[in-house]
Design a protein that fits this description.
Helix content: 40-55%
CATH class: Alpha Beta
Strand order of the largest sheet: 1-2-3-6-7-8-9-10
Number of helices: 13
Structural class: alpha/beta
CATH topology: TIM Barrel
Oligomer: single chain
Number of strands: 10
Radius of gyration: 19 Å
Strand content: 15-25%
CATH superfamily: Aldolase class I
Length: 335
C-alpha cells in the first residue's frame, strides 16, 4: 500500500468524512454577515477553532480542508491550526486553487485557475502540515452547457494539479462540481456528470496520476433547483450510484460527496441512502461545508464566546453524517 493510499483511506475510515472549512475570505464574510457577525481574521478564526476543537472531530471527521489564511493562523492556545487538527486525530488539508474565472472562448462558463506557482505553494503547505489538497472545477448545466471546451479545460487543470500534488506527497481531492442552479432534470444531471467525470479520469490517467492516491469529490445526481422534475431521495441515491459505477475506475479508494445546495438533513439522508444501496467497493462519505456548519454558525452567532453550545450542534451533525456514511442513519436519530 502506498503512503498516499494510506492517507486517503485514513481520512475516510470508519464512517469518518471531511469538514470543508476552506471558504475564501469573501465567502466567509458573506456567511458571517448573514448571521450579523463582523468578518475579521479574529472572528473567522474563532468560529473555525470552535469547530476544530469539538469532541466530535475525533470520532467523525477524518480530514479538514483549510483556506490559506487559516493554515497560517494560531489558536487561542498559541498552537498552529494544523497542529490542533492533527491532535484531534484528523488530517489537515488545504484548498489550492485560486478560484473560478471566466473561460476564454465560452464567457458563460468558468475555468479554475491556480496552476502558476503551484509547485512552490504545495511545498510550503506540506511544511505547514497539510497532507491532502483540494481543487474545484465548476460546471453549469443547461441545453448547451457544460461545453466540450469547459469539460476538457477543467479536466486538464484537475489532472495537472493532481500530478503536482502527488509529486509533493499529498493526496489530491479531485472535485468536479456540476451546479444545482438551473431548470435541468435529474436525467440531464446524470448524463452531464457522467461525461465530466469520465473526462477527468481520462486526463488523470494521461498525466500518470496514481488513482489509488486520490479522493473524488463529486456532486450527487439531483434535479436543478428551478426544475419541475422532482425526484425522491431513493432515486437520487440510485442514480448517483449508477453514475459513479459507470464513470469511476475501481482503483479510486474513496468518494466524498459535496453537499452543493442541499439542506443539512437532505445531504445526510441522501448520503445514507447511497450507502444503504452501495454495492461497490468504494468508500462513500462526505466532504461538507455548509451542511456541517450552518446550524452551529447560527447558534454561535448569538454568543461567539459560548463555544460549548455550538460544539454540541456541530458534534450532532458530524455524528449524523458519519452514521449516514455507513448507511446507519435514520430520521428518528435527529431528535
Amino acid at each position: 500500500m502506498s503512503e498516499l493510499n494510506k492517507i486517503a483511506l485514513k481520512i475516510l475510515e470508519k464512517g469518518r468524512g471531511i469538514l470543508a472549512a476552506d471558504e475564501s475570505n469573501g465567502t466567509m464574510t458573506k456567511r458571517l454577515e448573514g448571521v450579523k457577525i463582523l468578518s475579521t481574521p479574529e472572528n473567522r478564526l474563532l468560529f473555525r477553532e470552535t469547530l476544530f476543537s469539538a469532541s466530535g472531530m475525533t470520532k467523525y471527521i477524518g480530514g479538514v480542508i483549510l483556506y490559506d489564511e487559516t493554515i497560517r493562523q494560531k489558536t487561542s492556545k498559541n498552537r498552529m491550526i494544523p497542529e490542533l487538527i492533527s491532535e484531534m486525530g484528523s488530517t489537515p488539508g488545504i484548498k489550492v486553487d485560486t478560484g473560478a474565472k471566466v473561460l476564454a472562448g465560452s464567457p458563460n462558463e468558468k475555468i479554475t485557475e491556480g496552476l502558476d506557482g503551484l509547485r512552490e505553494r504545495l511545498k510550503e503547505y506540506y511544511k505547514l502540515g497539510a497532507r491532502f489538497t483540494k481543487w474545484r472545477g465548476v460546471y453549469s448545466i443547461s441545453k448547451n452547457y457544460p461545453s466540450k471546451l469547459s469539460i476538457q479545460s477543467n479536466a486538464h487543470a484537475l489532472a495537472r494539479y493532481s500530478a503536482l500534488v502527488q509529486e509533493t506527497n499529498m493526496v489530491p481531492i479531485v472535485e468536479p462540481e456540476l451546479l444545482m442552479d438551473g431548470e435541468h432534470s435529474s436525467r440531464e444531471c446524470f448524463s452531464k456528470t457522467s461525461e465530466v467525470i469520465k473526462k477527468c479520469f481520462e486526463e488523470l490517467i494521461l498525466h500518470k496520476v496514481d488513482l489509488k492516491g486520490i479522493l473524488l469529490k463529486p456532486n450527487m445526481i439531483l434535479s436543478g433547483n428551478k426544475s419541475k422534475d422532482k425526484i425522491s431521495n431513493e432515486e437520487v441515491a440510485k442514480l448517483t450510484l449508477k453514475c459513479l459505477k459507470n464513470s469511476v475506475p475501481s482503483e479510486v479508494p474513496g468518494i466524498a460527496f459535496l453537499s452543493g445546495g442541499q439542506s443539512e438533513i437532505e445531504a445526510t439522508e441522501n448520503l445514507d441512502l447511497i450507502n444503504k444501496y452501495n454495492d461497490t467497493d468504494f468508500i462513500m462519505s462526505f466532504s461538507y461545508g455548509r451542511a456541517l456548519q450552518q446550524s452551529a454558525l447560527k447558534y454561535w452567532s448569538k454568543d461567539i464566546h459560548n463555544s460549548e453550545g455550538s460544539q454540541q450542534i456541530f458534534n450532532h451533525r458530524a455524528k449524523m453524517n458519519a452514521l449516514a456514511a455507513q448507511g446507519k442513519w435514520s430520521k428518528d436519530l435527529e431528535n
